[in-house]
Amino acid sequence: MKDLCLHIRRRWFVLVALLPLLVGLMVLAGQAAPVAAAGLPETDPQKPDNTACLACHGQTGQSMKLPNGDVLGTSVDSKMFDASVHMNFSCATCHVNISAYPHPKNASQTAKEYRAQYKDACANCHKALAAELQDSAHTLLGKNGNPNTPVCIDCHNAHTQQPVKKDAAGKPTYEENATIAKVCATCHNGIYQQYIESVHGAGVTANNPDVPACGACHGIHTITDARSVEFRLKSPDLCAKCHTDAKIMGKYNISTEVLSTYVADFHGTTVTLFEKLSPDQQTNKPVCYDCHGVHNIARTSDPQKGLQIKANMLKACQNCHPDANINFPDSWLSHYIPSPEKAPLVYYVNLVYTILIPVVLGGMALIILTDIYRRLRMRGKPAHAETKEK
Amino acid sequence: MSETKYVRFELARRLEHAVLILSFTTLGLTGLIQRFATAGVSEFLIRLLGGIEPTRIIHRTAAAIFLLEAVYHLVVLGYKLYIQRAEASMMPGIKDVRDVIQFVGFNLGFTKDHPKMGRFNFAEKAEYWAMLWGLVMMGLTGLMLWNPISTANLLPGQFIPAAKAAHGLEAILAVLAIILWHFYHVHIKLWNWAMLRGTMTQSQMEEEHALELEAIQSGKTITPYSAQERARRMRIFVPVSAVSSIFLVVVIFMFLSYEKTAITTVPPVLGGVAAYQRQTATALPTRAPTVTPVPTPTKAPGASQAPTQPPAAAGAATWNSGVSQLFQDTCAACHGSAAMGGLNVSTYADAMKGGSSGALVTPGNPDTSTLIIKMKAGHAKTFSDAELAKIVDWIKAGALEK
């Protein structure tokens, strides 16, 4: 009996000890749940449901005319909406300013203004993205009055947005690259047309995980101004992120010495020093894209644009050195480390000096050593030449 | 008690030396930090000098001073050799090789006597000629780097990176040689005051320049010449040295300022296009969704009428022959299955039922028909004038189905 009591008491003890642990786990689980849902609200099935709205807006070809003459499409494809990430949302979740028919008058004068009023509707749920966007080049341009800058729904049609595949870090995976590039093309079509023909763009079309799409260099919601001094000075590091990665470059047989050979040269040294010492000061010394092109980068073996073709390289040189002649491109070692095959003259100059320097200095040192030896040997002994000037 | 001192360098030579110290040190310092630009200490010094561009300007200024000093030195040499007929005491010879061997032998205890040397001993000659070699090498390669476009016009392009390699390596050699050879001989083994005070003590003369000392003591150094002779020599020397030195200075400045190597602006983007370039605008900014076909209005049950029904008034359309389509196109978005305001115009029967405002049409009388009154008063959507005329005709004709 006594034993049993003890036994029971011990079990109670275990339970009491476990209780805080259990509570702790529950609290943790409670906290973890919304994190897993990326901070987005729980989605009840459309309340109020969208039938009333879609009765009209579900029809094709709906539009409204704004005071400035802009025509705004007001149709929503209910099938696509019901397959979108927002399928469980009621129209009124975002369209808080519309509740009944006839709809209240909207003060927007232009389609742009009309669309911009839903910016906050997105931010209500997508708080982290809205925060990221605060410093984006698009936001800043918009604040400076540029009329062409996009708001959320210019890139993401909230009525049709499909789930974006993301990696562990929350960034879109490479499978999204082609889609994202097309979104950028809406406003940056000139660039897109060049890009999609480039070696990188062709890779994106082919769903190659190794090539950079727009976001890899520019960021997506954190887009920086690519025309800034900072962007230009840091751009070699941007290219180097992949181009010094042996794992990626190995697949394509591309040298990973491109950064070190660039930095060792006059141009690269200058740009590196500017980046380190005066990051806010512009330099006209070329960065990677001044020779290789920005969005129209081609293989260096490309017969049309490739820099292995001397005429193309000369054209790149003449971009900054208008008086350069056909000999001039050879003054750049094309990212090669001097060897008897590539840049023999440079190689042999280096070789001669690696012999000359130790030989000359060694000879001098030997003669000096004998003098030191004599002076040490004769220390303290009177000698005719040992008197120092007073 | 002070020793006898012998004049070794006049003031002008000492000033030349000071100019050389300044320009050489500046060149070495500003050059090596460019050669090893990414080293931490280089970065620190470059920052101290105000960045890489100021560092380059300082380097090139020092180079110009160095070159001008070389021209001046040539004129002085000419004066000494031609006017004064001084001995070319810097010329190396077999004796210098013997002196080195004897010096080493003496140091190691194989030879009894220290070599007796002239005005410039082997150590000084080695340094002078190394300096001259350095001047030529550094001058040539430096000017190639300063004028790369002109260089490539004359030579294969690879000479430019080769010049850069040689310029940097020669600099390392020169600086290390000065530190090792010059510093040892002039500052470490004994402090040599000659370049500061201009004089040297007897004992130092005995060790370093025993032959010159003997010559001085026997009065053999001066080659006397008459004032007439001097004037005759000057008549040749002055124009020749003036023309050649002016020529050299002009050539140097041409080399330093001739070439416009590169543009001074940031290069234009190759194949650049406008950043903002919208895709060809579609009619509506949002993507046109795939059409969900509007359900074709089904015939109202019991709508099938006896074929004996009287035909429509001539000219006026009937519900089935076009009026239905007008309603579909203009009204059905709200007054279709959504039946806004209770009105559904999907079928003839429904349309005729009207909505919350009563009957839609009064057959035969457009003016009292709610539809026409609403259209004329302004509605969210209205028929075009032509369409409205058709509708009016249809009502006038009795608003028939068939």
Describe the SSE topology.
The complex is a heterodimer of chains A (390) and B (402).
Chain A: H1 2-36, H2 51-57, E1 63-65, E2 71-73, H3 78-82, H4 91-94, H5 111-116, H6 119-125, H7 127-133, H8 137-143, H9 152-155, H10 177-185, H11 189-197, H12 199-205, H13 214-218, H14 229-243, H15 246-252, H16 258-264, H17 266-277, H18 288-292, H19 310-318, H20 344-377
Antiparallel strand pairs in A: 1-2
Helix pairs in contact in A: 6-7, 10-11, 11-12, 16-17
Chain B: E1 5-7, H1 11-35, H2 40-48, H3 52-83, H4 94-108, H5 122-146, H6 148-154, H7 159-188, H8 194-197, E2 199-201, H9 202-208, H10 210-217, H11 227-257, H12 319-330, H13 332-335, H14 348-353, H15 370-377, H16 385-396
Antiparallel strand pairs in B: 1-2
Give a structural overview.
The complex is a heterodimer of chains A (390) and B (402). With 390 residues, chain A is mainly α. Among the domains of chain A are: 8-37; 229-337, no CATH class; 344-370. Chain A is built from 20 helices and two strands. Chain A has helices spanning 2-36, 51-57, 78-82, 91-94, 111-116, 119-125, 127-133, 137-143, 152-155, 177-185, 189-197, 199-205, 214-218, 229-243, 246-252, 258-264, 266-277, 288-292, 310-318, 344-377; strands spanning 63-65, 71-73. In chain A, strands 1-2 form a two-stranded antiparallel sheet. Chain A is elongated. The termini of chain A are far apart. Residues 28-38 and 385-390 of chain A have low confidence and may be disordered. With 402 residues, chain B is mainly alpha-helical. Chain B folds into two domains: 5-257, Transmembrane di-heme cytochromes, Chain C (Fumarate Reductase Cytochrome B subunit, Up-down Bundle); 319-396, no CATH class. Chain B has a two-stranded antiparallel ribbon. In chain B, α1 (11-35) packs across α7. Classes of the chains: A mainly alpha (390), B mainly alpha (402).
